[in-house]
Design brief:
alpha/beta; binds pyridoxal-5'-phosphate; eight-stranded mixed sheet; Aspartate Aminotransferase, domain 2
């Protein structure tokens, strides 16, 4: 769509998208951060040769630190968060022909993880306030083959885990709690990932704890931990996190609480700055005693309030120097051969069409930078709103 031709030019000529000056000409901050403690970890791993060995102290130390941090007895690191979800389902003995409840809007790998063990996703709508599985819609979705629930905390939202745990216990289901976007988050009084029978973490290249690749499961169940280990042990560990990866995650874990607090503060400040911009609704959910993690900060973009579509809005924001993108595509268009739909997926479809996500690195920037990000939103809004 040649938006240039459809808009009165005085209104948009100053936008960076059309050659005006960018609000943040330096662009978004890069990730990962050049942490001194990470550099020291690299140097130490180089000096003692652990960077090149199969076995060393770092993976064991990380697993032990993750267990302490989550106050659970068992953790197991692995090659990715995507695989960790599949591993969790295997360790819970979810089998071919079983059904697994999943939100209609979630990380695409979670759908595949269920399929890859021969089980079948049962799609349930999301709560639009949290972008996460709607606990009130779960019970009616349970059928005779349903064995488990995969639930993610997404985009600064928090799923209602107390209610999901109660339903799961009453109906004999197990829960995989995907905390890849919320490491260190607080969910109704507990560390994110510890309401589930298994919690899942990611150390992927964009995540809050990063080693480029990597993941982990956390669990209080010894049988689950044993089965996960046994599955990975295929003569050698077939899906490992490396010593070097573990070495650089360890110092980041030390910084996680401080950084989560800083991100939360900036996220709240930015949401407050932008309140009242019509056509942009923040995703905010605060169940009692919860504090989200901000891998992404999300808004719903309502096209009716704008002269442009979501893609054009995103392009305008990116040109201003803000790292903002579209959300997940969700599963509402997946055929009935691949999944069962339990009820309408209206909120999931809306989330797939409308979600815009601010990437987290800027949430560690100064107050002044957050104000400039807000200014970029206001500038684009003023030029392109209806
Ligand atoms: C990133 C992510 C994962 C897994 O990520 P990997 O890059 O495979 O480690 C899983 N679930 C959610 C919700 C995620 O955001």
């Amino acid at each position: 769509m040649p938006a240039e031709e459809q808009l009165p030019d005085a209104r948009f000529r100053h936008l960076a998208l059309f050659g005006g000056e960018a609000t943040l000409p330096e662009g978004p901050p890069s990730w990962p951060l050049p942490d001194e403690s990470v550099r020291r970890a690299f140097e130490a791993a180089f000096a003692d040769g652990s960077w090149g060995r199969y076995h060393g102290p770092h993976v064991e130390r990380l697993e032990s630190r993750l267990a302490d941090y989550h106050a659970v007895p068992f953790t197991l690191t692995c090659c990715s968060g995507t695989f960790a979800v599949e591993l969790a389902l295997r360790a819970l003995k979810v089998s071919p022909g079983d059904e697994v409840i999943l939100a209609g809007y979630d990380f695409s790998g979670n759908f595949r993880g269920i399929e890859s063990i021969g089980a079948r996703p049962v799609l349930v709508d999301i709560d639009p306030c949290s972008s996460s599985l709607d606990d009130t819609m779960v019970e009616q979705a349970i059928g005779p083959q349903t064995q488990a629930i995969v639930v993610s905390h997404l985009h600064g939202g928090v799923a209602r885990m107390r209610s999901l745990r109660e339903i799961a216990d009453r109906r004999g289901l197990q829960i995989v709690e995907d905390a890849c976007q919320t490491p260190g988050g607080r969910v109704e009084g507990r560390r994110a990932g510890t309401w589930g029978d298994v919690g899942v973490l990611s150390f992927g290249g964009s995540k809050l704890l990063t080693a480029g690749r990597g993941g982990a499961i956390v669990t209080a169940r010894e049988d689950v931990h044993q089965r996960a280990k046994a599955y990975c042990e295929q003569g050698n560990n077939a899906f490992p996190l490396s010593e070097l990866q573990a070495a650089v995650i360890l110092p980041q874990l030390e910084l996680l609480d401080t950084r989560n607090a800083a991100r939360r503060k900036n996220a709240a400040f930015l949401v407050t700055c932008l309140r009242g911009l019509d056509g942009l609704t923040p995703i905010e959910s605060a169940p009692h005693d919860s504090a989200a993690g901000y891998f992404k900060l999300a808004w719903l973009f309502d096209e009716d309030n704008w002269t442009v579509n979501r893609e054009r809005f995103l392009a305008a924001m990116q040109a201003e120097g803000v790292a903002i993108d579209a959300g997940f595509r969700g599963f509402t268009r997946r055929g009935s051969g691949r999944c069962r739909r339990a009820g309408e997926l209206t909120n999931s479809a809306r989330a797939a069409e409308r979600t815009v996500l601010l990437h987290h690195p800027v949430l560690l920037a100064s107050h002044a930078t957050i104000e400039r990000v807000a200014a970029a939103f206001r500038k684009v809004h003023q030029a392109l709103r209806n």
